[in-house]
Amino acid sequence: MPWTATNTEGRPAPAALAVDAVVLRVADRRLEVLALRTEDGRRALPGGLLGPRDDPAEAVRRVLAEKTGLDGIYLEQLAAFADPDRDPRGWIPSIAHLALVPADTTPRDPAARWVTARGRHRWAHDHRDMLALAVDRVEGKLWWSNVAVGLLPAAFTLSQARAVYEGVADTGYDGATFARDLKATGLVEPTGERRSDGPGRPAALYRFVTAAPAWGAGRRKRVSPA
Fold first, then answer.
1. Which of 84, 128, 136, 208 has its CA 20 to 30 A from that of 164?
2. Strands 94-100 and 18-27: what pairing?
3. Which of 51, 139, 133, 142 is nearest to 98 (CA)?
4. Parallel, antiparallel, or unpaired for β 30-37 and 113-116?
5. Pair (152, 130) in one structural domain
6. Global model pTM greater than 0.85
């Protein structure tokens, strides 16, 4: 098998290490993932090989900046994918990362496209498994943490927040119940400003108390779908 090394005990070992990024956004209440195209027409996540002195987190940030033009975004490590047959080049484990961006994010790479994260696409390697894990991670943390800080602008209305939460959870929420329970998490606070998005009274703007990872599970009731 190419790209395979031998360890000190004479056993096969990975000869390289890669990083891949599952970049998600919510647009029009739909969860989308950033995808590239392989030569055989399959979808692929942005990624690349690590250099000998690369830190995985810094490497994935560099890959995103180089291939998509995205920088300074929410990023967390998902898991290591190390099946010896995952890459046709050889045994190349990959450290998958989750990246979250606001809806108005447009990659510079003309080959990158936003596609529905829950669609039936043909994915390269084990990228389908990476995507499934990323969606599950965001869904699981949505109401228990401030993970949505990566999907919303710095200041947002409760209507904007509701649209994002509905896109991630793939369900609808009653507006009044959503507003009450989001405030009850203790994760968001009013900015003191208002913004008009159409007819009617300008809506109050909110922000997350912190952009650093935070939990609010003990201060909310679970929101029921509308």
1. 128
2. parallel
3. 133
4. antiparallel
5. no
6. yes
